[in-house]
Amino acid sequence: MRSILQDLTPEFLKILNKDKIFWFDGWKEYKQTRPKIIREYEKLENLNENKVKERLNAIRRKDLDMFKQYWENNFLEIKKEMVMKLSRNAEYFQLKRGDFVVFIMGLLGLNSHYYIETYYGTVIVVDSFYHFLYKEDINKTIENSIINFIKNNPVNEKRALFGKVLSQIEKIIYDNNNINKVMEKIVKILYENIEYYNWVGFYLTDKNNKNMLKLGPYLGEPTEHINIPFGKGICGQAASTKNTFIVQDVTKESNYLSCSEKTKAEIVIPIIDKSGNVFGELDIDSHKLNPFTIEDTQFLEEIIDLFVKKFF
Ligand code: SME
């Protein structure tokens, strides 16, 4: 069974290592562990910096200390119970569908749970601190929120697939230090797993000419476009604007370099290093018209984010 239940409460509780006047710094550090989720949480709760500070200020150290103790003494048991219940009823909870996960997180005790959309599906975020404060049964919340989610959302096949592929890619990036090997492997996984990704490759900025892209590792039909100047074609435009470039129908794009008659759509994600220079880009062609949705963009940008974090 994929691990659909994760507990991030201990990360939150690190805040207790700091003096109360520095809890907001602790919150910022905590935010680093799951930036997108916590940013979304703040949005959903309408929390700006001052409101977070106010709320942290209102929480008593004593309550957090007691929460920590409670969590350390009871969570394993709570989790065991939940995992057992979920796996015994895997079908009922539709665990195979793969487009949702549950994160138990220490948050500010404002609401019991939230639904947050990500590239790998919906994250059901359950506030453990809320359940401690109001003595509510966290496992009941988890159960009900999953049921509520599956009742209201048809399976998102794309996200389910992207979630699985992304975890393979994450592992490759984590395990390999050779940038070329990693690029080759990313190309292979994307090409083999996503049926409408019919040409997948990297273009890399030429070391001797900062305004030229050179073809890197790729899979798909050979292309005559080995060198592409910045600004030319979809690839060149993505490089010069430093933005993801999506063309759902290449016949409608005048600045386009054709590689294959079969290509109908293309998406290019630039790879920007820490100093803001274009290291290169990930280019994908599809034989399908209008194939790319927000899920593709988020998924591919996430891959590039991980790649940049590792190598730059
Ligand atoms: N179509 C691209 C050229 C590269 S190939 O798709 C592999 C473009 O317009 O830049």
Automatic annotation (TrEMBL):
Stored Gene3D superfamilies: 3.30.450.40
Domain spans labelled GAF: 180-306
Superkingdom of origin organism: Bacteria
Coiled-coil stretches noted in the UniProt entry, renumbered to this chain: none
InterPro entries named among the record's database cross-references: GAF, GAF-like_dom_sf
Pfam families tied to this protein: GAF
Protein name according to UniProt: GAF domain-containing protein
Organism of derivation: Marinitoga hydrogenitolerans (strain DSM 16785 / JCM 12826 / AT1271)
Source organism phylogeny: Bacteria, Thermotogati, Thermotogota, Thermotogae, Petrotogales
